[in-house]
Write a structure and sequence with these properties.
- With 73 residues, the protein is of the alpha+beta class.
- The protein has a single domain (2-72), classed as Fe-S cluster assembly (FSCA) (GMP Synthetase, Chain A, domain 3, 2-Layer Sandwich).
- 44% of the residues lie in helices and 27% in strands.
- The chain is built from two helices and three strands; from the N terminus they run αββαβ.
- α2 (48-63) links the parallel β2 and β3.
- α1 crosses α2 (48-63).
- The radius of gyration is 11 Å and the shape is globular.
- The two termini are 19 Å apart.
Length: 73
């Protein structure tokens, strides 16, 4: 599952990179939470939670509905 999630995040990265940001896969927990690290312009952005929940989490859960959520670390 971890490799599938890494691939999904790699597919999302170009969209964030266009705006000067980036995302890095950190871990997949036993609780089915995907942990990511926002980088570049996304790090500390006031809209970062929207990016995670409305963007990254939505896309990943569409592909892998068993995922409980995505959170920044």
């Amino acid at each position: 599952m971890e490799e599938k999630l890494r691939t999904a995040i790699e597919n999302i990265r170009p969209y964030l990179q266009r705006d000067g940001g980036d995302v890095e896969f950190i871990a997949y927990t036993e609780d089915k939470i995907v942990q990511v690290k926002l980088k570049g312009a996304c790090h500390g952005c006031p809209h970062s939670q929207m990016t995670i929940k409305g963007g990254i989490e939505r896309i990943i859960k569409e592909q892998y509905p068993e995922i409980a959520g995505v959170e920044a670390v």
